[in-house]
Amino acid sequence: MRSVYIKDKNFTTIPEPICAAIGNFDGVHLGHQKLIEECKKQCKEHGYKSAVLTFYPHPSVFLKKMTNYPLVTPLESKTEVLARMGIDYLIVVEFNLEVAGMTKEEFISALHQMNIVSVVCGYDFTFARKAEGTIRDLEKEFDFHEVKKYVYDDVRVSSTLIRELIAAGDIHEANRLLGRQYKIRGKVKYGKQVGRTIGFPTANLEYYNYFLPKTGVYFVNVIHDGITYLGMCNIGHNPTVNFSESIRMEVNIFNLDEDIYDQFVDVIFVEKIRDEHKFDSIDELKKQLKRDKAACLEIAGDMNYTK
């Protein structure tokens, strides 16, 4: 997959006719995947190249003047998911003052300039200044394909719903609607190594702009250097020992005993084990961590995990 980054309204002309699925695609969930499937279908029928056109940063960051807007799929993660789906081009438009102020005519002209001849959008997609552009405007200009709202098991799939599920700790349902297990990529940083003193060493992660699940303990898979390990992840404030005002993400990786500081790992969330609690003593915490690990291994056995 080739990435094309659009900055300062410098809309690159792609040398092949393009069918583009357009949207923010945070999560690249089952509903988004329907748009991409339709895009690939049109490409197969008409000989177009497939593309996903998205915006960075997320328009909400700019329009609502947010300093931080955690995402289910930050750009790096989104790029990885789309590449696996077989998209030819990822077109990333830098969302800034100029792009936010474009009229619908200017935006449509930019799509033409990029050699986009076919467009796939969700039924509620809007664009341009003050969201003045609608899918009806696109329908007049392009070989246009509208994708209706996607309902899975009587649930309307949306990025908002998936964020709510992750925030509530309902990883199982979030994974079902994502069509894959939720993943956070983080860099291992130095901590106070308290976990090591109680028999549960943890990798403390910088989780950057990912949307964190609810505080608690989760059964996870951890991918490091191409190898998948079982583990358990704590997200929270460490109320029993080494309390932190800010939320931390720490992972106890089973059967990995090596220095991985400053290295990246992928943490794949499988199931929530419990909420975060404050224990009356270190001994109580250690006993609970042993129960947590046993619960993780039981889930792993039920799911036929082998590592």
Structure in a nutshell:
This protein is an alpha/beta fold and 307 residues long.
Structural write-up:
The protein has helices at 30-46, 59-63, 75-84, 97-100, 104-113, 135-141, 159-167, 171-178, 194-197, 282-302; strands spanning 2-6, 18-22, 49-56, 89-94, 116-122, 126-127, 133-134, 143-147, 151-152, 155-156, 183-189, 203-206, 216-224, 227-236, 248-253, 264-274. It is of the alpha/beta class and 307 residues long. The protein folds into 2 domains: 2-156, Rossmann fold (3-Layer(aba) Sandwich); 182-302, Riboflavin kinase-like (Elongation Factor Tu (Ef-tu), domain 3, Beta Barrel), CATH 2.40.30. The chain has a 6-stranded parallel sheet with strand order 1-4-3-2-5-8, sandwiched between helices. β6 and β7 (133-134) form a beta hairpin. α7 packs antiparallel against α8.
Percent range for β-strand residues: 25-35%
Give the topology string: H per helix, E per strand: EEHEHHEHHEEEHEEEHHEHEEEEEH
Q: Rg from C-alpha positions?
A: 22 Å
Q: Tell me the number of helical segments per DSSP (H or I, 4 or more residues long).
A: 10
- Total number of strands: 16
Termini separation (Å)?
Answer: 31 Å
Low-confidence parts: none
How are strands sequenced across the largest beta sheet?
1-4-3-2-5-8
User: How many domains in all?
Assistant: 2
**What is the helix fraction of residues, given as a range?**
25-40%
- In the CATH scheme, the class of the largest domain would be Alpha Beta
From the coordinates shown, what is the CATH architecture of the largest domain? 3-Layer(aba) Sandwich
- Report the mean per-residue pLDDT as an integer: 93
Largest sheet: 6 strands, parallel
CATH topology of the largest domain: Rossmann fold
CATH superfamily of the largest domain: HUPs
User: Which structural category do the helix and sheet elements fall into?
Assistant: alpha/beta
> What is the general shape?
elongated
